[in-house]
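Hello,

I think I submitted the NDP job twice by accident. Can you confirm which output corresponds to this input? Input:
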Amino acid sequence: MTAKRIDGKAFAAGVRARVAEEVARLKEGHGIVPGLAVVLVGEDPASQVYVGAKGKQTVEVGMASFEHRLPAETSEAELLALIDRLNHDPAVHGILVQLPLPAHLNADLVINALDPAKDVDGFHISNVGRLGTGQKSMVPCTPLGCLMMLRDHLGSLSGLNAVVVGRSNIVGKPMAQLLLGESCTVTVAHSRTRDLAAVCRGADILVAAVGRPEMITGDFVKPGATVIDVGINRIERDGKTKLVGDVDYASAAEVAGAITPVPGGVGPMTIACLLANTLTACCRANGLPEPQGLTA
Ligand code: NDP
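Support: Only one job matched these inputs. Its output is below.
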């Protein structure tokens, strides 16, 4: 069996097109322009690339983009003052603080200073609690993107066995909460899990968010399972730098029913969901109905 390749790049383009349509409707019908502010502290090269891509795609869907690039030596007080200004700025509906922050800044303190309604990354403690208790929240972008692709591919997820490998606050835990919300039977595996391969072989849905290149091989996969590979790992192979996931695509695709590739799977969905979250936040802030299918 060769698995169906779930094309995250095409899916993300569809989400962005949908967001762009809704943005145009907000402008024409209500004179509202959704705005996303991205805050970057320091010169981390990967973060600079992400922030650039986010700003470009924000503008492409017709939203306003506000970029705040601050020097690495910015103090906590200065950063908190900026966040306070953005919290109170009516043109800003979403705020994203690019992580990681330089070591002298307390990321938890900074994230929890955001207005939870503008926390489009879904990392504020109030949004984490809301997601955990099944209340309306801002949902972290990467797991939201995984959920959208799973719904699209499988329809109802109810009753399926889901295994999430990884228990980080930004991917593994919120992913597990979302799958529980879809009435899956959820197992969260991690570095102390015994016989990981056997645990994974019980999964109808297998989500890998580990950060270890190609660790999940075909013998971890139940025949016909849907495999979502969140991992992004840079490796050297044949003298070239290559991007690979946490799943060994070649062997897993022999067994799975469907699988996301790396690159071109979950990655493009993350920014698309950031835009979807900004649109959702804007609709909520203005008391307008939320577009269907763009949130959990
Ligand atoms: P973290 O390093 O925060 O978490 C990794 C998790 O994997 C931990 O819970 C860890 O367990 C678990 N783990 C590590 N080694 C093993 C092992 N040998 N067996 C089982 N579990 C293991 O990573 P993130 O969640 O932040 O990211 C995971 C991956 O997803 C990375 O490759 C990252 O680059 C990628 N990523 C991709 C995004 C995208 O847009 N597509 C966005 C965010 C992340 P323990 O808790 O016990 O240490």
